[in-house]
Specification:
This protein starts with 13 loop residues before the first helix and ends with a helix. The protein has an eight-stranded mixed β-sheet with strand order 4-11-10-9-8-5-6-7, with helices on both faces. It has a four-stranded antiparallel β-sheet with strand order 12-13-16-15, covered by helices on one side. Strands 1-2 form a two-stranded antiparallel sheet. The protein is globular. The protein contains 15 helices and 16 strands. With 489 residues, it is of the alpha/beta class. The protein has three domains: 31 residues, no CATH class; 122 residues, Aspartate Aminotransferase, domain 1; 230 residues, Type I PLP-dependent aspartate aminotransferase-like (Major domain) (Aspartate Aminotransferase, domain 2), CATH 3.40.640.10. In the C-terminal section; belongs to the class-I pyridoxal-phosphate-dependent aminotransferase family. InterPro entries: Aminotransferase_I/II_large, HTH_trans_reg/aminotransferase, PyrdxlP-dep_Trfase, PyrdxlP-dep_Trfase_major, PyrdxlP-dep_Trfase_small, Tscrpt_reg_HTH_GntR, WH-like_DNA-bd_sf, WH_DNA-bd_sf. Keywords: DNA-binding, Pyridoxal phosphate, Transcription, Transcription regulation. GO terms for molecular function: DNA binding; DNA-binding transcription factor activity; pyridoxal phosphate binding.
């Protein structure tokens, strides 16, 4: 509102800047409110208009609503993004005709594509979107409130003003980000690092470069479903190695190497997905000895490096001097799902083969995303965020574990020292598929454990994510799971 009496002009300085900012924000809110009003009124008109009808011109809408042309254009862009109108430059804006979906015959594709190369699902239950009105315990990612949103937004703002917006980064990655990954491990050089657009791309490249189609790859069982899918897509022959509450048995691992002639073993020594198991220092040394004796590679997936709760992660790659360990670390879980950045550390010819595969597949990783990732992890607030994340994960893990123990009859679980999930074993007589359906009907979405096994599952399991939204609903979720299980008993 215009003041009734003139006010003294503010002096230049911080108060003046704050005042200008406040005015700018107020104008922005006014534009948003006005454009929303125009959108609402035009949608009412469009609902009764014929397809192809021309909307009033910008000049007419400005006069009718008493707003600026910018506000009108914003409203029209909103309608266009919603598919309600289409703009024809130099002619005007028109009501878009609605395309009625017709049933299509895709039968010809059956003959063209032939048999499926593998029967692995391309999308895990952990990746399914869930409605807002259910309790979601199936996701493989932490919820939004556990992410460093302010750091990420600020990093994107700074990166947008840098040369990363238009520059082409080196194929192996931005040197500063390579140096950060190397320093985090402590025993690697920046030149050992290759940057990937997420760990899934890294796994596919490693499997192609170091194993190859038709050749055996030893793999912990159970293990990360994405690694199983990546191996199947590459055509690798997976050989499961049982992994118990403490990790794999070195003697069984040695036997699998001798029996198959494999030259690589994929594993997650720290907070394995889905079990949460962390190898002891002794076991890590014994596994590395087995790998060395067989002239093989240990593909170490360090996905949960920043998700320790009661222990600190100890990468096996930190004790490797001869290039036997290929180390993969992702930032997606702790920076943002939108910042898909991972680093692979490999030495010698193995690194060159992985880099060559990267060049043929992706050429290079977005310099913008690399700049954002580097900005976030080098801020002083990054370490504070990780400490706070540990506290939150501890509380959520304990809340869900206590609820499962109280409400789910016959359930057995080990409390993980880190990661995002509880691995819950159910009675062997459980009809797992029916239980999952019953839970979803009751309002809680869970992930069945079968897809984390590279071969037949050895029991009936659920993987429950304690890093999901609304932890206050965990007791209710456990109660619903328990009731569904009791009905199926």
């Amino acid at each position: 509102m215009t003041p009734r009496s003139p006010q003294a002009s503010p002096e230049r300085g911080e108060d003046s800047a704050v005042s200008l900012m406040a005015v700018a924000l107020l104008l922005s809110v006014m534009v948003d409110d006005s454009s929303a009003r125009i959108v609402a009124e035009l949608r009412e008109w469009i609902a009764t208009a014929q397809a192809g009808a021309k909307l009033p011109s910008t000049r007419e809408l400005v006069a009718r609503h008493g707003v600026s042309p910018v506000t009108v254009q914003k409203a029209l862009r909103t309608l266009a993004s919603q598919g309600a109108v289409e703009s024809r430059p130099g002619v005007g804006t028109f009501v878009r005709s609605v395309r009625v979906a017709q049933p299509s015959d895709y039968g010809w594709q059956t003959a063209a594509l032939g048999s499926r190369k593998n029967n692995r699902p391309t999308l895990s239950a952990a990746m399914r979107p869930a409605p807002n009105d259910v309790i979601a315990l199936h996701s493989g990612y932490p919820c939004r409130e556990l992410l460093p949103e302010r750091l990420v937004r600020s990093a994107f703002t700074r990166a947008a003003r840098s040369d990363a917006v238009v520059g082409r980064p080196p194929t192996a990655g931005v040197p500063e980000l390579q140096a950060w990954f190397a320093a985090e491990l402590g025993t690697a050089a920046p030149g050992d690092v290759v940057i990937f657009p997420g760990s899934q791309s890294g796994l596919s490249a490693i499997f192609r470069a170091l194993v190859g189609a038709g050749r055996p790859l030893l793999m912990e069982s159970p293990t990360y479903w994405g690694a199983i899918v990546a191996a199947a897509q590459v055509g690798v022959q997976t050989v499961p190695v049982p992994s118990g509450p403490d990790g794999p048995d070195p003697d069984q691992l040695a036997g699998a190497f001798a029996r198959t002639g494999a030259r690589a073993f994929y594993a997650q020594p720290n907070y394995a997905n889905p079990t949460g198991v962390q190898w002891s220092s002794r076991l890590a040394g014994e596994v590395l000895d087995v790998v060395r004796r067989n002239g093989a590679f240990l593909i170490e997936d360090d996905w949960a490096r920043d998700l320790g709760i009661t222990t600190e992660p100890e990468p096996v790659a930190a004790r490797d001097e001869d290039g036997h360990v290929v180390h993969l670390r992702s930032l997606t879980k702790t920076v943002s799902p939108s910042v898909r950045i991972a680093g692979v550390i490999a030495r010698g010819p193995a690194r060159e083969r992985i880099l060559a595969d990267t060049q043929s597949e992706a050429v290079y990783v977005s310099g913008m995303l690399q700049a954002v990732a580097l900005d976030v992890v080098t801020q002083p607030a990054w370490r504070r965020y990780l400490r706070d994340l540990r506290r939150q994960l501890t509380a959520r893990r304990d809340l869900l574990a206590d609820a499962v123990r109280e409400h789910v009859p016959g359930a057995h679980l080990e409390i993980p020292a880190g990661g995002l999930n509880l691995w819950v074993r159910l009675p062997d007589t459980t009809d797992l598929a029916a239980l999952v359906r019953d839970c979803e009907t009751a309002g809680v979405v869970v992930a069945p454990g079968d897809e984390w096994f590279p071969a037949e599952p050895t029991g009936r399991f659920l993987r429950l994510n304690y890093a999901g939204p609304n932890p206050g609903t965990f007791p209710e979720a456990a109660r619903l799971i328990g009731e569904a299980l009791s009905r199926r008993a």
